[in-house]
Amino acid sequence: MRSVPESAVADGEAGSAQRQVTRLSVLNTSADSIGINQRAHYSIDQFASSTAVPYSTIRPAIFSASLLAAGREVRDSRTWTGLAGSGRTALIDHRDAAEAGLRVLTDPAFWGAHHDLTGPVPMSWPEALELLSAELGEPVVGVIGTSATRTVYAVLSGMVRSIAASRIM
Q1: pLDDT over threshold 60, residue 169
Q2: Model's pTM, two decimal places?
Q3: What angle do CA 80, 100, 67 make, to 5 degrees?
Q4: By 3-state DSSP, what share of the chain in percent is helix, strand and coil, each rounded to 5?
Q5: In the chain, how many H helices and how many E strands?
Q6: CA-to-CA distance for 111 and 56, rounded, in angstroms?
Q7: Which parts of the chain fold into alpha helices (H)?
Q8: Is the pLDDT reported for residue 43 higher than 90?
Q9: What are the beta bridge partners of residue 90?
Q10: All domains of the chain in start order, with CATH
Q11: pLDDT by residue (tens digit) across 67-121?
Q12: Alpha-carbon Rg for the chain in angstroms
């Protein structure tokens, strides 16, 4: 992805060419994450850091629009199924993430760093489902997977069973 300053520099408006790669990523990346997405994004970050190109990531929390995007399925079943229990997350509006992304792309002061983005209010999934219920005008029940279900999910996503079980139990 080329940022606006890179385009200007590459077109000869400055003395030397600069490059910046900015990538949309996910929160909580690590090599030993239970989530396959977090592990994959961690691997990409490790590779990118081995290059000479300035590299940034934008790491938004779960988009609040994701709740509404599932609205039809949720309305039909009146159920939201997930693996997260009562842990808290600050859902972010996709427009806020886009605005932050534009800033990272166009302001060299933000280059070469990872930017974690969250919404303004941490809430549990039961609290988020209360809001979704209000938006849909119907009650939505949260169905949370058991420890065994989460272990199976982690193993299916590539984690060694003994490691997955020790982190989930």
Answers
A1: no
A2: 0.62
A3: 10
A4: 50, 15, 35
A5: 8, 7
A6: 6
A7: 4-8, 36-49, 65-69, 71-77, 94-106, 125-136, 147-156, 161-168
A8: yes
A9: none
A10: 4-168 (3.40.50.720)
A11: 767 767 777 887 776 656 667 888 888 899 999 999 999 999 999 899 999 989 8
A12: 20
